[in-house]
Amino acid sequence: MDINRVHPELRKATASFPKLPVGSAFGRALTRFLLPVLPLLLPQPKLPTDVKIEWMQAASGRKLRVYTPAGSNTRAAMLYIHGGGMMIGFPGMDDALLASTASELDIVIVSPDYRLAPENPYPSAIDDCNEAWHFMLNNAAKLEIDTKRIAIGGESAGGGLAAGSVLRIHDEGGTQPIAQWLFCPMLDDRTALDRTLDEVNHFIWDNKLNLAGWTSYLGAQIGADDVSAYAAPARRKDLKGLPKAWIGVGDIELFYEEDRKYAEALQAAGVDCELDVVAGGPHAFEGLAPKAQVSIDYVSRAKAWLKKALMKS
What we know:
Strand order of the largest sheet: 1-2-4-3-5-6-7-8
Largest sheet: 8 strands, mixed
Order of helices and strands: HHEEEHEHHEHEHEHEHH
Strand content: 15-25%
Helix content: 25-40%
Number of strands: 8
Number of helices: 10
């Protein structure tokens, strides 16, 4: 892909982003090791001082990173799921976004440290996200959460897990999320099998990496007719009754088409869905270049939508 297709404010960061070596076991191990270390070596944004960040544990022992604003009152909340193609990533990589969102919107945010593939294939990650959801409900009094005002969000693979979690919770019944907040969600395993997309060579996350991610998660089942919609939400045919949604995506990234189609399918099913498309935006650009004005404006729109969605009806 020609770098000139990237938004001018995002070109430098995009061009300098290294190719992720997650297609091999050694590459994944190296990337997993480096991700938590890199913030210690690079300048980091100043986090809000009015938000407490701590680790808690779910019943299984899985760790949950919890962001709590100062003060004592019952608040709206969000379950937020980190990205990483199902193979890498950890909750702390989203500290800047989640701490600022918790502070500005005065909400509690819980982010699960879910199990990664291929060591832990489907349904491990979605099970961990579901456990985090029930942790929030079961500990609502302790966390001071209003269970009628909980959103589920995430980015990339985390966005796909968020959308899949919404479907699973809908099917389980009981308390439901009020909104879904999806940044460039990874929704459809069938995209990875379209080998013509390899030639496009999308920035940040290309289709070869996408194939590695989906294969790690689904194994030989990738592309099969019976892949669960909890794993690949684009497989879902009936989207009626789901909570309102915001989907943000750049128009030059790999997931643009599947995200657009999912937004249109939600709208066709009567779900209030806002699709925010950023011209010249590569994958997860707002985290890649957070100081770019196009990123600032994009995140501001996303937060404004979430704030309105979480308001008491």
